[in-house]
Amino acid sequence: MRDAKAVKLVAAALSFVGRPAAASEVVDAFEGIDGLRGAQIIDALSSLVLDGRARMIPRGELIYYDPSPTRELR
Question: What start and end residues bound the annotated signal peptide (predicted)?
Fold first, then answer.
């Protein structure tokens, strides 16, 4: 079950950073903040990808938050 608070926090962080980030980088940055666990953060990242609000970039397993999901990444 996805945690709406975790999804919002992770989306806000990725949007603020403005560059692709490795999933492990996001977990390291947020684990423990407001009681978030690594599994919740990974679940939030997965939810963002499944919802089309973030994309996985295969090289290096980077996550890119895209506030306009219709734009294509190259």
Answer: 1-23
